[in-house]
Structure formats: structure tokens, C-alpha cells
Write a structure and sequence with these properties.
2% of the residues lie in helices and 36% in strands. It is mainly beta and 516 residues long. Among the domains are: 117 residues, no CATH class; 76 residues, Sandwich (Immunoglobulin-like), CATH 2.60.40.3080. The protein is built from two helices and 52 strands.
């Protein structure tokens, strides 16, 4: 499907490949509804307007992010759209944007359906008298996945329960949730998780960035999880949750029961109106291999630092293992009798609380690559888009995590799909420092140079002295020509294919073939 009839030049229309032209005179919903269950739908770049929710059928797959010249979803081009130095899984150069001028939810799933490479923006639900979601994977839609997608600048206003993206025993993987808002105008219902709402033992949020989201509620205590709300055994893995805000508890993440887990996440610069500026652990819960840093709560007349708040009305024990937590832990003043289980955690309760110090003076700084300087959801979302919460050399969070937990859950990569366990131990948070990409590149012959694929393109290591690297397509066309004196260089190539690399020094020349 395309907004431009010149797209799909490499696709031949036949009995199994149908090319559909979308124009303002057509209804996008009508066209989508005409597809059969088990169909795979490719949607080219452009803006598509909906007047009601896209309802994916069982086993249906919808892919966006195409220029129209590709012959496989793996060939879709990506680039660093937010300028944070990384090419992330959802950053498709040719965006497929879905929006709506009317009050409507946007997407629902059937059993085993997939939505991949879509951007949902400026979608609103207003004055709704029923439970409302922009995107919903309901419990009946087992095996469904939302991945490599963006949900941004969306809002839900309702008199009952409101959520933005709900996964009830579904998976949300490698997605960006940005600048969304929830508002319960009566206080009669909840407004939980402006970025992501996970419920159910099969629910997963994996490799996502959740930033700049905000929840509001007339009854402030019913506003939970400015970024993420999770319960009933859900797991949040390899995610960065930063600069979110809510009026109640859990500015970043709200964990609602004892079986729910936060694993290898970075939670920073979030703000709550009541308690738990970073993570609120209610009635138990598990937090492992994670970083909570520089979050804020405003439970008194003056805002105070608070990264993790634990407790609840049950005596369930809260478990923290291999975590790096600034400002320590605060206990909820209710009927909690079970103290938290702390295993190999670093609790920072005094000293310098800067985010990073390149001069190495600050004792406890986690040393993030480019953290934000403000706390809470900003008025201008562009002010936080270039943040990067990777770890720098010398971070105390490197080699601090538990390998056993990651092995048990078969977590082998980080947010950028780099391999875990660079050294003998894994790192805390969503990123593995110095991680080796999961897909190696095949060389023409044995070489002192090593070429790998990572989220930014091709990485060449083993360089020495002054080098000139030329990258050619198989047709012989020169694509890039770069000179460097560094021992390692990243080549911004994101489209899969076969490339020839010629590496020249003052006295040598070597040719490699990269296949990825």
C-alpha cells in the first residue's frame, strides 16, 4: 500500500502481491479491512488518516517504513532521526505515519498478529465514558507483538480508566513511547502508564525507550506510573524510562504486585507528585540489574530526591538484586512488615549526585553518555530527544549485574541488540558497555581487521595509523569514503546487503566483503 503510485517499483503485481494506491479519496480503514487474515501488508512512507481503529485479524502482519523500492522488510533504511548518536530499531528513514482528526483509538490486535515499523502520532481520545486505549493488545490476542514502532504526541481524556498502549499478555518490543498524556477528569477511574501499560504473566516490554510522558488525575492517588504501569507478572526488560511525570506514585515505573519484574532497565529524571519519583514498588515486586538515578518526588511542600519507594498494603517482600539506586530506599508508611530483600545492591545515600563527570572526580556518578539536565516531562519534547543513557568508561555500573538472572530468562542482548556479557559479568541498565554486535560480518579472507554489524551500521576494528576506508556496492558504485586515525570506526550503513570494503594505509591495501 502506498500514497504514491510510483512506489513498489521492484514488486510485480500478481495473485500473491497486490499493490493498493491510497489517496485522500479512499478510506484507509476500508482498504485495511479488505485484507484477509494471514495476509502480510506493507505500507510505504507517507501519512495515513484513520477514522476508527485498525483491527488486525488473526495472523495478520502490517509493516511500515518502506521507501517502496525494497523487496524485504529487512531492507528498510534507518537513520539517527533524534540525533542521540544511535540508530535505534524504530528510526525508519521513510516513516509510515498514522494519525486521525477525530476521537478514536488507533490499533487492536488479533491472535498472533504483528505491527512493525509504524508511527502513531497526534491521535486523541476525548470525553470517553469507557476504558480507553490508543493501542491495545487484549488478552484474547495471544502471541501478538507491537515492535519497531513509535507512539508519540497522543492523548487520552476519559471519565474512567485511561491508558495509552496496553499489552495484556502481549509483547511491545523495540518501540519509542514519547510525549503522550493521560487525563482522568473526574477522579473516578485510574490513569496508569502514559507510555506503557503491561498486565499479565506473558506481557513484556523489551528494548523500549519511554520518555516525556505524563499522567493526570483529579484524584492524584489514582495516577500511577508516568512512564510505565505493570502488574500480574509482567516484565520490563532492557528499557530506558526517563523524563516522565505523574501526579501520584511512580514518576517513571509503577510495579503493582509481587510477581512483576523490572530487569536491566535505566530509570532516570522522572518525577512524581506524591511518592516514588523513579520506581514505586507496591506490595512486593522484583527489581534486578537496574539503575534508578536522579528522580524526584514532591510528597511534601518541597520536592525531594527519591528513586525507589517500596511497600504497600500487603506484607509481600520487595526484592532488589544487583541494582544501583541513588538516594537509597524509602518505605511506604502503611502495614508493611517485610523488609526488602537486598542482594549486591549499591545504595547511594550521601555524597555527590551528578549524572556523570568526565573528569572522574565525582565518586558515585553512573557516568551516562548524555543525560538530560531537567527532571520530569518537559514542555518542549525536543529538549530531551538527544539524550543517551549508555554508560561511559569508568562507570561503576559496568560489570555489576547478575549473569545468572539473564541466563535464566535467556536475555542475550541489550536495547541496541548488542551482546550481553562483554566481560565476565554483565552491566547494569539497558545498555551493555562495549557490546559486540549479535550479527558478525563475513570476510572474503582472514584479516587483522574485524567487521561487525551493530545498531548504527558496520563497525571496523583493528585499524592502526592513518586509514582510508572506501565502501562500494556490488555494482561498483562508491558509497562512502572515510579517512580516520582511530582504531575503530562506525560506518553508517543500515540497509542490509552485500558491500565491498577497501581499507588502505600508507603501505597496504586490503579488500573485505561484508554480508549482513
Amino acid at each position: 500500500m502506498s500514497t504514491n503510485t510510483t512506489d513498489w517499483t521492484n514488486i510485480t503485481a500478481d495473485a500473491t502481491h497486490v499493490i493498493v494506491d491510497y489517496s485522500d479519496g479512499n478510506s484507509f480503514n476500508t482498504l485495511i479491512n479488505a485484507y484477509l487474515a494471514t495476509d502480510t501488508i506493507w505500507v510505504a512512507k507517507g501519512t495515513y488518516t484513520i477514522d476508527l481503529a485498525i483491527a488486525l485479524k488473526a495472523d495478520q502482519k502490517m509493516y511500515g517504513g518502506f521507501d517502496g523500492t525494497e523487496i524485504s522488510p529487512s531492507a528498510r533504511a534507518k537513520s539517527d532521526l533524534d540525533g542521540n548518536g544511535d540508530v535505534e530499531p524504530w528510526e525508519f528513514t521513510n516513516a509510515t505515519e498514522i494519525t486521525s482528526p477525530v476521537s478514536t483509538n488507533a490499533l487492536t490486535f488479533g491472535i498472533n498478529s504483528i505491527a512493525d515499523g509504524l508511527t502513531f502520532k497526534n491521535i486523541t481520545i476525548t470525553n470517553n465514558a469507557t476504558n480507553a486505549n490508543i493501542i491495545a493488545i487484549f488478552s484474547s490476542a495471544t502471541g501478538s507483538v507491537l515492535r519497531n514502532s513509535i507512539v508519540k504526541d497522543c492523548s487520552v481524556t476519559s471519565t474512567v480508566a485511561v491508558n495509552t498502549v496496553t499489552a495484556s499478555n502481549g509483547i511491545v518490543q523495540n518501540c519509542l513511547m514519547q510525549n503522550n498524556s493521560l487525563n482522568n477528569t473526574t477522579g473516578a477511574g485510574t490513569s496508569n502508564g502514559a507510555g506503557l501499560y503491561l498486565t499479565g504473566a506473558l506481557s513484556r516490554g523489551i528494548g523500549c525507550v519511554i520518555r516525556g510522558n505524563k499522567t493526570l488525575n483529579l484524584t492524584t492517588s489514582k495516577s500511577k506510573g508516568g512512564g510505565v504501569f505493570m502488574q500480574s507478572g509482567a516484565k520490563l526488560i532492557n528499557c530506558v524510562v526517563y523524563n516522565n511525570e505523574n501526579q501520584g506514585q511512580g514518576g517513571g515505573v509503577y510495579v503493582n504486585d509481587a510477581t512483576t519484574e523490572v530487569i536491566n532497565c535505566t530509570v532516570a529524571k522522572n518525577k512524581s507528585g506524591l511518592t516514588g519519583g523513579g520506581i514505586y514498588m507496591n506490595g512486593g515486586g522484583i527489581c534486578n540489574n537496574s539503575i534508578a538515578w536522579s528522580n524526584m518526588e514532591n510528597s511534601s511542600s518541597t520536592a525531594i530526591p527519591n528513586d525507589v519507594y517500596y511497600g504497600g498494603t500487603s506484607a509481600a517482600k520487595t526484592t532488589f538484586q544487583n541494582d544501583y539506586l541513588a538516594y537509597g530506599l524509602n518505605e511506604k508508611s502503611l502495614t508493611v512488615t517485610a523488609l526488602p530483600d537486598l542482594a549486591n545492591c549499591k545504595l547511594i545515600t550521601s555524597g555527590e549526585f551528578a549524572d556523570n563527570t568526565l573528569d572522574g572526580i565525582t565518586d558515585f556518578a553512573p557516568k551516562f553518555k548524555n543525560p538530560t539536565t531537567t527532571i520530569g516531562a518537559p514542555a518542549d519534547i525536543s529538549s530531551i530527544q538527544q539524550a543517551n543513557y549508555k554508560l561511559l568508561t569508568g562507570s561503576p555500573c559496568i560489570d555489576f549485574a547478575s549473569n545468572a538472572l539473564l541466563n535464566t530468562l535467556t536475555i542475550t542482548t541489550d536495547l541496541m541488540t548488542g551482546t550481553r556479557f562483554v566481560n565476565t559479568k554483565s552491566d547494569l541498565g539497558a545498555y551493555e558497555f562495549g557490546s559486540v554486535p549479535t550479527t558478525a560480518v563475513k570476510n572474503i579472507k582472514n584479516s587483522n581487521y574485524k567487521v561487525f554489524k551493530n545498531g548504527q551500521g558496520l563497525v571496523v576494528t583493528g585499524l592502526s595509523g592513518e586509514n582510508t576506508i572506501s565502501v562500494f556496492g556490488l555494482n561498483g558504485v562508491l558509497l562512502q569514503n572515510i579517512s580516520t586515525i582511530e582504531s575503530e570506526i562506525s560506518l553508517p550503513i543500515t540497509q542490509k546487503g552485500v558491500y565491498v570494503l577497501k581499507i588502505k594505509t600508507v603501505s597496504t591495501s586490503e579488500t573485505l566483503k561484508a554480508i549482513f
